[in-house]
Amino acid sequence: MTMVKTEMRAFCNDYAEKLEPFSSTLSSALGRMPQQHATPLLDQWRLRLQEVCHRAETLSDKIGQQHAFLLIFGPLKSGKSTLMNAISGAYVSEVSSLPAYPALVYVRHGEERAFRATTYAGDKIEFESSQAMADKVSHGHEELAQRILEVERNGEAFDPQRHFPEAIRRMDVETPAEALAESGSVLVDTPGLYTRMRFGYDVMTRDFRDTASCAIFVVKSDNLFFEKVFEEFNELLGHFSRIFLVVNIDGSKRDLSADGSLEPSLESREPQAIVEAFQSLAMSAPLREAYEKGNLNVYPIDLLESASRRLKSQAGVEQGEDAEVPQNEGFSRFLNDLTEYLNSSDYHREFIYDTLRVG
Questions:
Q1: Is 25 helix (H, G, I), strand (E, B) or coil?
Q2: DSSP of 201-219, one letter per residue?
Q3: Which one-letter DSSP state was computed for residue 239?
Q4: Is 228 helix (H, G, I), strand (E, B) or coil?
Q5: In terms of Cα–Cα distance, which of 59, 140, 74 is closest to 101?
Q6: What CATH number should be reported for the domain whose range is 68-111+176-320+340-358?
Q7: Is 158 within 8 Å of 199 (Cβ atoms)?
Q8: Which of 253, 251, 267 is nearest to 307 (CA)?
């Protein structure tokens, strides 16, 4: 394993050195181009160059820091932010639970908290606090919605780069999180699926399509058997080399017994039984194929309980003796499998291959 990591570190250092002049030339060329609305042809080329610059910046970030991007998907209120707290071992909900704005939020370790947004035009905005960023996003959401309506009324398909380049494309957050520092991981929070995005799901994930990034899809157990939840999920299967499906269960659920007393529900007692029922009764053919190939793993986890225990552990708070209940076992298994995959020779091979291809 040490040999594999050393090989990847050498590759990243060498590749970053070769990529730097190219990125600098791109930025310089973009800076010399006329501003928007010069001529239709120049506008078209400027937009293309902006996109190339953005992708080059993401690639440079990935290889410069040897980051493993973990993309987190799921419907609104499925538990994505809670999972981010659990993985990072730090309270990041305040910065990841931004309004359902169609932009990605990158959360990584930093010695000091820092907040930055990047627009489609490539401009970067610094914020003093997470609240300042949230206020900007809230205001930007109203502007974006209005601009989309105006463009649609003119019979056009909305393109943020062309129609509203001031719109925020991505948000970057740095916060003390030793677990992320140790793993070299960057959590990428996506807007809740089924929000009224009207654009951008396809565009937003373009930087990660067909790369060594892995996706984590979070769904509440109550929604696990709804076919609509997985309409977008099938699309992810073709774009990510590994997908972890986290079924967010409620370990506090109770069922009514014949004598009127309340007892722990099946979900609380045997969370794996919920997953087995899904696999046998509701799993679609594409999901089953991915599962059988080992590209899809499924984990029943009480995310609220797991995040609570993780944060208490990081803070040195003494905990009870129920650490091995099924709900907590699920998170331990998930974290072990995720770590094992990111440390595997398969992942490092894919990382190098995809980096060369994207470059």
A1: helix
A2: HHHHTGGGTTBS-EEEEEE
A3: T
A4: helix
A5: 140
A6: 3.40.50.300
A7: yes
A8: 251
What long-range pairs does 125-128 form, CB within 8 A, spacing at least 24?
125/168
Q: What are phi and psi of 115, to 5 degrees?
A: -135, 130
- Domain range summary for the chain, segments of one domain joined by +: 1-66, 68-111+176-320+340-358
Cα–Cα dist 142/144, whole Å: 5
* H/E run at residue 91: none
* Biggest CA-to-CA distance, the chain: 78
Q: What six digits make up the tokens of 64?
A: 């410069």
Q: Which residue is it, tokens 């109770």?
A: 254
Q: From the first residue on, what is the mean pLDDT of each consecutive set of 10 residues in the chain (359 residues)?
A: 55 75 74 68 74 73 70 87 90 66 85 90 89 85 86 86 85 88 84 55 61 81 85 74 91 87 87 89 88 92 91 77 60 90 78 67
Q: Tell me if residue 86 falls in helix, strand or coil.
A: helix
Structure tokens at 263: 């007892």
Tell me the residue type at 222: D
Decide: 187 and 218 in contact? Cβ < 8 Å. no
Question: Do the bridges between strand 214-220 and strand 243-248 make them parallel or antiparallel, or are there none, so unpaired?
Answer: parallel
Which of 224, 245, 227 has its CA nearest to residue 236? 245
- For the entire predicted model, the pTM comes to 0.80
CB 130 within 8 A of CB 115: yes
Two structure tokens written together for 116: 């930055």
- Crossing angle of helices 40-65/345-358, nearest 10°? 150
